[in-house]
Every structure is written in C-alpha cells, then in structure tokens.
Specification:
19 strands; single chain; alpha/beta
C-alpha cells in the first residue's frame, strides 16, 4: 500500500468533518429562525418590534464606513426577509472568537511593526518618493497604514512558474543554519510536500528551528488530521490556523491565505501557489496550472519575518508564544548592485484597513500608459470598478487576465458577471486558455509590479490574511511584464463578447450573482 493510499481514509475524514460542520451550522441558523418565528407568532407585539429593529439595523448598516458593495446585499436581504436576514448578519459579523483575535493581533502588531522602522527606512521612503513621484503615494500609504517600510538594499527575482521557484526554495532550505519559517494556506501530503519534508527533517536534526503554519480549511482535503502531531514528532513546530468546528462563528470566514517561506532572515519567497501537487502540474484537474512567485533577498526579508511572527504569536491565545523577536531579525549586509526598491506588505481582516485593495486601486490611479492584472477570481467592489474604468477612460491600457478553465464553476460565473461593467468603460478582459491561471499580480508602466497572494475578490480583499510584494525599478518588473505578454499570447480576448450580446436571462442571473457575491 502506498503512502497516498494509506492517507485516503484520514483525508476523507477531514472532508467529512467539513461537511458535517456545514450541516450543523445550517441547522443552527434554521433552528434560531424557526424558534424566533414561533415566539413572535405567540406574542403579537414581538413581530412589530422585530420589524422596527430591522429598520434600525438597515439604517445602521447604511451608516457604516464600508463600501456600498458590502452593505447593499445585507440591506436588501433584511428588508425582504427581516428575521432570517438579521440572524444571518449578526451571526456572520460578530463573535467572541473574532473579538479575542482582534485583541491578540493589536497587541502583537504593537510590538512587531515598530521593529521594522528606523532612520534608514525613512530615508529609503524619501528617496523612493523623490525618484518615483507617481508611485510615492502608494509607498507612503503602505508605510503609514500597514506599518511596512520601503527597502532600497534588497533584491527581487521573479519566477514565471511555481516549479522554478520551488527549486530555488529547496536550495535556500539546504543553506539554512538558524531557522526556517513556512506559512501556506494549503499543504498537501503529496510529492511536493514530501520532497520538502525530507529537507526539513534533516535540518531539524541539525538543530535548525523549523516552524510551519497552515490553514485548516485550506488544507482539510489534502492532509490527515494528525498532521500537526507527526510534524512535532519530526522536530518541526507546527500550528494550524482557525480550526474549522461545527457551529456558527463569524471568525470562521477569516482564513490564513498567506503563502511564504523564510530562511535565516536572509531569503523570503511568496507567490500564488500552495504546497500541493496540482499547483506544480503533477496532477492536472483543471488543465495546465499557471502560477508565479518572487524571491526577496536582503533587509526586506524582515517584513516577511514579522508577518510570519505576527501569525505565529496571534493564532491562539493558549499557545506558548515567543518572548524575544530580535533573534529572528538579524542585521543583513546591504547587497551590492541592488537597484530600485521593494516593499513587502501584509493585509489582515482584523483592522478596518483594506490594504490589498487600496494598493491595487492606488496603482491604477497612478498608471500613465498601462496597468495589467491577473487574478483567478474577479469579484470586486464598485470602487475598484470605478478606478479601473476611470484609468481606461484616461487612455491607460487596462487589462485583466482570468482563467479559461474554472476550478469553481459558481465563482467562475460570478467572475464573468463583472466583465460587462468593466469592458463598457474600456477595460480589456482576457481568459487564459491552457487551463487555470492562479497568479495574483499586476504590472504598470515598466516601473512597478506586485506579486503575492491577493486575489481580486472579496474574500482576499476583505476577509483573509494575505501578503504581497511591491517592487519598483527592478529587473523583476521587466520579467513580470514579459510573463504577462507570454500569457496574453495564450489568452482569448473576450472584451467584445461581454460588451454586448447578453441575453435577458443571463443578465438577470448575473444581477443575482453580483448581489450575493460578497457573501461567497
């Protein structure tokens, strides 16, 4: 019996746990709605009180400082179905677990983020703003609203495939002498992970500190339930983010979607891919899988390290956390010939700042000639639709690449429902024909690019923990653009198809999908 065959029953148990949890959650909502409905039928004045409460809640939602795209679906739902709507809203927006998590993140960020700032970083920001005036506002925003600085003395290397980056990651793991940090949304106990695990076990035996974080939902269909215990037995410290349990919790919707690997504080890797076989085209469930990533060397690695330590020390309040952080933030010698600037950053749903979306929008506003995006899912706010449309109206070449073969058909239908709103304002849409394009990137004006984990969808932009890397004036920008051009050559241009020609039935269906999109 192969290792894969041995794991199948346990993996099935993980999927079964997910299904049972969903069923229990739905049953919980239905029970609450029916119980309150029964009581209101028995006590006549409660029905009027609930209707009055629904009006108050609608006014309260409307007054919140959120995008209208997030507010309108709830307002319509509560107005149409007051009791179920209010129940769903309260259950999905508030929970004690989320409140506790917000407190832990606030406390750890107050310690970690100031460790990134010093006089050199302030000088780098000033130099950045002086040299790249149109982009200075984006860098300034990231410094002041996310806490992540600009670095002038670091290198960035772009990889057009997950397999190419993995080779370099393994080389970095082999060189590690002090610590290895790994954080991925999904880890599959397959060929890719096993090849990495051999190295991690050997390094742990040599005394290297190895830590792994994975998301429970992201990895549930890929691994057995005793994964953490088996890693600990190998000398690898392991933590699971936000274990999925039966019952309703607002915090359940917040997932750790980050993907990063850090070695000795000297090298860091991030990109769109998870550590699962399909991302490396070992399996082909959706045709050819396209993914990309970047390697960062030098002082900028500190920002990735802080992002990892943030998650490690905030994931649960009953864990034994770090006492000292300085040992993981070593001084790194400036790299000769490191041109341009790099600014790694992270986004968290535990604050009210939507960093990922703001960066994408800011780059659209600063673009002069072109700005190109690639995303596996396209479910965006009215604000982003307006920003992209306005850029196109000003003469900027705005393009978006989405997959030609979907991994989730419903989400794919939602993605296509946004095409018409974009193309009617001049944005061009391309679908990647060889298969599923999972990259999360943008490039603009041969000057700046972003590569990371942030999709152009509500979940990434509003609900998930994410990371990205902005690099400016580097060769990696040209490499990123070249890869975009290669992707365009393999895409079909569907711009005109979605400008007109939609049937009434299709338009109505897309209206419904757009309405519920932010809840998906």
């Amino acid at each position: 019996m192969t290792e894969k065959d041995r794991r199948k029953p346990q993996v099935k148990k993980g999927v079964f746990r997910f299904v049972i949890s969903i069923v229990i959650t739905i049953a919980e909502i239905v029970a609450i709605v029916f119980a309150v409905s029964y009581i209101t039928r028995q006590v006549w004045w409660l029905d009027y009180m609930l209707k009055a409460l629904a009006v108050v809640m609608v006014l309260w939602i409307y007054s919140q400082h959120n995008t209208a795209s997030m507010k309108m679906p709830w307002i319509i739902l509560i107005m149409a179905f007051p009791l179920p709507g209010m129940t769903m809203y309260l259950l999905t927006r508030y929970s004690l677990s989320e409140i506790r998590m917000r407190r832990r993140y606030r406390d750890i960020d107050a310690v970690l983020l100031p460790m990134l700032q010093n006089e050199d970083r302030r000088k780098d920001l000033a130099d950045f703003k002086k040299k790249y005036v149109p982009l200075g506002g984006t860098a300034d925003y990231l410094v002041h609203y996310s806490g992540y600085p600009v670095y002038s003395n670091s290198r960035v290397r772009y990889f057009s495939s997950a397999a190419d980056e993995l080779k370099v990651q393994k080389e970095a793991l082999e060189r590690a002498q002090d610590f290895i940090f790994i954080e991925y949304y999904a880890i599959e106990e397959g060929e890719i992970w096993n090849s990495l695990l051999e190295i991690l076990k050997r390094k742990a035996e040599q005394g290297v500190e190895v830590r792994v974080i994975y998301d429970d939902i992201g990895s549930m269909r890929y691994m057995t339930t005793d994964f953490t215990k088996r890693m600990e037995a190998c000398g690898i410290r392991c933590r699971v983010f936000n274990t999925f349990m039966p019952g309703f919790s607002a915090f359940r919707d917040n997932r750790d979607h980050r993907k990063m690997m850090i070695t000795d504080g000297k090298a860091a890797f991030t990109g769109g891919y998870n550590l699962a076989d399909e991302y490396f085209n070992i399996t082909h469930p959706y045709g050819f899988w396209k993914d990309t990533g970047v390697e960062v060397l030098g002082e900028a690695v500190k920002s990735f390290t802080v992002t990892f330590l943030e998650m490690w020390n905030a994931v649960r309040d009953n864990d034994i956390d770090d006492v000292s952080y300085a040992q993981y933030l070593p001084e790194v010698q400036p790299l000769p010939g490191a041109d341009g600037f790099v600014q790694p950053y992270a986004d968290t749903p535990m604050d009210n700042e939507h960093v990922g979306e703001e960066v994408y929008i800011s780059l659209a506003y600063s673009a002069h000639r072109y700005i190109w995006y690639v995303t596996p899912y396209l479910i965006i706010t009215d604000e982003m639709i307006h920003a992209l449309g306005l850029a196109a109206k000003k003469g900027v070449d705005v393009r978006i690449i989405t997959p030609g073969i979907p991994d989730k058909k419903i989400i794919y239908s939602v993605t296509r429902s946004y095409y018409n709103s974009l193309v009617r304002n001049g944005v061009k849409i391309y679908e990647y024909t060889p298969g599923f394009c999972h990259c999360k990137m943008c490039v603009t004006d041969d000057t700046a690019a972003v590569c990371g984990t942030i999709n152009l969808d509500y979940r990434s932009l509003y609900h998930h923990f994410e990371d990205g890397c902005l690099y400016v004036g580097k060769k990696a920008v040209k490499d990123t653009k070249a890869d975009f051009e290669n992707m365009f050559a393999e895409c079909r241009d569907v711009t005109e198809t979605y400008r007109t020609g939609r049937s009434t039935r299709l338009r109505f269906g897309q209206m419904i999908l757009r309405l519920i999109a932010q809840m998906l």
